[in-house]
Design a protein that fits this description.
single chain, alpha/beta, 2-enoyl-CoA Hydratase, Chain A, domain 1, eight-stranded mixed beta sheet, seven-stranded mixed beta sheet, 20 helices
Length: about 525
Amino acid sequence: MNNQDKVKNLIDLRVKAKLGGGEKRIASQHAKGKLTARERIDMLLDEGSFEELDMFVTHRCYNFGLEKEKYMGDGVVTGHGTIDGRTVYVFAQDFTVFGGSLSETMAQKICKVMDMAMKNGCPVIGINDSGGARIQEGVTSLAGYAEIFERNILASGVIPQISAIFGPCAGGAVYSPALTDFVMMTEENSYMFVTGPKVVKSVTGEDISTEDLGGADVHAGKSGVAHFKVENEEEGVLLIRKVLSYLPQNNLEDAPLVECSDPIDRLEDSLNEIVPDNPNHPYDMKKVIHTIVDDEEFVEVHRNYARNIIVGFARFNGVSTGIVANQPNFLAGVLDCDASRKAARFVRFCDAFNIPILTLVDVPGFLPGSGQEYAGIITHGAKLLFAFGEATVPKVTITLRKSYGGAHDVMSCKQLRGDFNYAWPTAEIAVMGAAGAIEVLEGRTLASFNDPQERANYLAEKVAEYNDTFANPYQAAAYGYIDDVIEPRNTRFRIIRAFQALQTKKVVNPMKKHSNIPL
């Protein structure tokens, strides 16, 4: 074979490798409304930037006749490319090859790009579409999963890790996405579960569909496993690119600074009126967020899960910032187990990757009841408390209305090393609401009244007295727990000024192997 023949052979092999499991299986993938692994990568990365690795790798299994069926690439496409000119590493499971099932060599390919991502300090994106472990390979497939898990663990907090679930993801396969920073699922075509409907039926007798057991709606809204739910793969890919634009390449860098044309001193008169006069009336915290951030752009994380708290990314004067905010429009913005976990994870992510945190507070307390206590609200609330207290990034907190009881402490108060703590004049900072406080403080006196009208008048008088004392931010400001009371319409400018003042902040936590967060 001369040199020209060798080059032609290489070209032919590349063409064959790019077909994965073949034209018939590619057509089957398209018929399900799913793209192939390479189509997904091409859509994700900047045009022409993908450099594929290990295209010619094949499996080494000789059990159950598998040696008679080999495909180049062995069920996963791996390599690196760029998104908006920034290098990322990527792997995409190929469902056309053995249903994307994980083999020993497939795991080695994935581990190789993860190792490269760590070595070069670049994000890694995994696109999952797999039937699980390759049964014919037995324990070597299970070992492959564990090798991937270990790299997910070591990469955590060092480089951003994003998982896109664009098909099935079951059994041990679910734990790699669960270890990453963000999980995305598509409607209809993706699902995640440890054990499938058939096993559930045989073990527990429960009859449940794949969608109801582990579909996108379930994990985006009920379990919180998925941070994002998208309609289709195209939307998912665009969202991955958008999220990455807010993140640094690694934990030693800052997120990209974006040129900002939105005036930093823009006044928003609507904010002066947004908090209702009646403290029991709700309002939409997202309106506040969109009003104060650059160009009204806010990328919400966990939109459908624990909606009583809002987390996500925005920019202030071009600087990427994480936002944590109570949502009075849902359960009055109360903190419960799910909201505490959701916010705590987000705060720790921001802290790991040098992203400043803005906290917007309107919280009446923790959700009472045996259900929450049995679910461990003490431990879950402590997670958020721990996350804010441990974080060393710049932290700005603004109390808009209620900030009651232990929830006041948990929401990035001054004593948890809040750098700048501001309040609107509508802020109420107290141990509890006026009516409940007076019932405790004046309980005996109230019980002594025989005339209901006299009792009501006395109660109203004491409630008014309590409100005069605590239904404002000035007592907290008198102690220095609030740095300033600000005019609502000037909020954007004060936030930007505060973060500018904190650009050179340096805080180092005590030396330790690692903390023992209340998991």
